[in-house]
């Protein structure tokens, strides 16, 4: 069973010897260090399955290393290496949670056996943790907020897809979380300890995208002043996320196809064929089938990318997630901006649920961020959230597309404008008077009963504008 292993010993010869023994048949990923003080940093950057540590080292002893590791991740197996003279301490270490100990000088078979056992134990720990998390209902993908049926289905798809090596095409409207999902797939895959490299094909100019992806050698074109490593090389062993894949130019489509099919590519200015071991995830908000029909996107590339398709629902398709998303962003930005905001008022929540979200979660996040910045009290109110161009109110007369209006029959155009005007007028005046119909009627010079009728006819909820108690 292959694993990620760290060997710590202040004697460099010992590190070489153990690495050689462990690099036999099983392809472990092995890190070594002769300085135990580097352990905290290494633990931050890597997830080790097994750590072999010497017991007696000048900077830090093996028991201290053990405690550090266990505090970081209790399911990492720690094996203590010790000379006969200190065997008592090694036994003590196993009481403190070490997996086992090995006495020096050791036989090759003994090391291989203990490491193998430790990896199996670690594997079981991970499986148990996974099952426990599922049983306890702990979210599998904590970064992906939403518990609507659509989101739950998506999370279960991600979970199944993550463990495979298959190429994934993520589709969905802008701001639905495509990059977030790509990251979730990577972080639940076997490549999670390797790099996740995103590249946005729509923002990188055509002239440099090849060099960005594949790199170049010095002097291969004007301006290539030194060798440049490409993102493909950086992603080797890990995941490459190709965002807005529909914008990739035809020449690059061919080169990408070769990389996908054969795992091969060439650095600009070099004739050597290089190999890459990469998991590909692509995303688009375009209809690629349409682009194929127009001859703008290669069909063979589409089929290579679309091995598994994950389609992300828009907010329209999961409005029940709006409250949980809003609360999530409220907490996030309250912490970020050092504000003590306890929750949203009922009106604010109604407002968020009522308005349209063409920019999906990204737009909701922006509105909440702005709201947190603007809020004066400890409860977020409607007034903190609405922006002049937010979709909450009907389009203003000034911004209505005139061609549309003038292409309608006169009466219909007049009715439409009248309808827009009345809804907008009522909304504004009620907003100004916090939903108090008598005061709003007085200011607008209308009879209270008439204003009531207009409110009913135009389906404006006057109570939405009332200052109310927080709901959380
Ligand atoms: N389900 C979600 N839970 C929490 N945050 C989310 C969710 N979906 C999206 N977001 C947030 O919304 C923002 C936009 O998400 P992301 O960039 O992944 O969208 P996208 O679909 O890739 O957008 P685009 O197509 O415009 O590139 C990010 O800040 C992301 O963290």
TrEMBL record:
Residues 4-119 form the Response regulatory domain. InterPro entries: AAA+_ATPase (IPR003593), AAA_lid_NorR (IPR058031), CheY-like_superfamily (IPR011006), Homeodomain-like_sf (IPR009057), HTH_Fis (IPR002197), P-loop_NTPase (IPR027417), Sig_transdc_resp-reg_receiver (IPR001789), Sigma_54_int (IPR002078). Keywords: Activator, ATP-binding, DNA-binding, Nucleotide-binding, Phosphoprotein, Transcription, Transcription regulation. Pfam families: AAA_lid_14 (PF25601), HTH_8 (PF02954), Response_reg (PF00072), Sigma54_activat (PF00158). The modification 4-aspartylphosphate is found at residue 54. Gene3D superfamilies: 1.10.8.60, 3.40.50.2300, Homeodomain-like (1.10.10.60), P-loop containing nucleotide triphosphate hydrolases (3.40.50.300). One of its GO terms (biological process) is phosphorelay signal transduction system. This is DNA-binding response regulator. It comes from Desulforhabdus amnigena.
């Amino acid at each position: 069973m292959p694993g990620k292993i760290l060997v710590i010993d202040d004697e460099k010869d010992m590190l070489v010897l153990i690495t050689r023994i462990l690099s036999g048949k099983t392809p472990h990923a092995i890190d070594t260090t002769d300085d135990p003080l580097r352990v905290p940093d290494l633990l931050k950057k890597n997830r080790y399955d097994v750590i072999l540590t010497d017991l007696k080292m000048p900077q830090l002893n093996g028991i201290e290393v053990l405690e550090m590791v266990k505090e970081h991740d209790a399911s990492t197996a720690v094996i203590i290496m010790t000379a006969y003279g200190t065997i008592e301490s090694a036994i003590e270490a196993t009481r403190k949670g070490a997996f086992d100990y090995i006495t020096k000088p050791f036989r090759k078979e003994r090391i291989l056996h203990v490491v193998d056992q430790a990896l199996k134990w670690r594997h079981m720990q991970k499986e148990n943790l996974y099952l426990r998390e599922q049983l306890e209902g702990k979210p599998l993908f904590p970064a992906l907020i939403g518990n609507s049926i659509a989101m739950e289905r998506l999370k279960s798809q991600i979970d199944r897809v993550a463990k495979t090596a298959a190429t994934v095409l993520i589709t969905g409207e802008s701001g639905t979380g495509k990059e977030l999902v790509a990251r979730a797939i990577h972080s639940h895959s076997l490549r999670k300890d390797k790099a996740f490299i995103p590249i946005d094909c729509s923002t990188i100019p055509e002239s440099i995208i090849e060099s960005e992806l594949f790199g170049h050698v010095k002097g291969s074109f004007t301006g290539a002043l030194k060798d440049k490593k490409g993102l493909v090389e950086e992603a080797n062993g890990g995941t490459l996320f190709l965002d807005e894949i529909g914008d990739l130019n035809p020449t690059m489509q061919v080169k990408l196809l070769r990389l996908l099919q054969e795992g091969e590519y060439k650095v600009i200015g070099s004739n050597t064929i290089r190999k890459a071991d990469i998991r590909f995830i692509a995303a688009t908000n375009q209809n690629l089938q349409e682009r194929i029909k127009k001859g703008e996107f290669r069909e063979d590339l589409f089929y290579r990318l679309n091995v598994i398709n994950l389609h992300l629902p828009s907010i329209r398709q999961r409005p029940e997630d709006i409250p949980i998303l809003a609360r999530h962003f409220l907490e996030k930005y309250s912490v970020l901006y050092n504000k003590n905001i306890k929750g949203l008022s009922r009106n604010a929540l109604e407002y968020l649920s009522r308005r349209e979200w063409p920019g999906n979660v990204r737009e909701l996040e922006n509105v909440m961020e702005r709201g947190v910045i603007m809020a004066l009290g400890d409860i977020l109110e409607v007034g903190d959230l609405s922006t002049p161009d937010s979709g909450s109110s009907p389009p203003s007369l000034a911004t209505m597309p005139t061609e549309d209006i003038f292409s309608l029959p006169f009466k219909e155009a007049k009715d439409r404008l009248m309808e827009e005007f009345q809804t907008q007028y009522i909304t504004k005046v009620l907003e100004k008077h916090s939903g108090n119909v008598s005061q709003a009627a007085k200011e607008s010079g209308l009879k209270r009963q008439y204003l009531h009728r207009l409110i009913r006819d135009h389906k404006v909820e006057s109570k939405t504008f009332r200052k109310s108690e927080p709901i959380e």
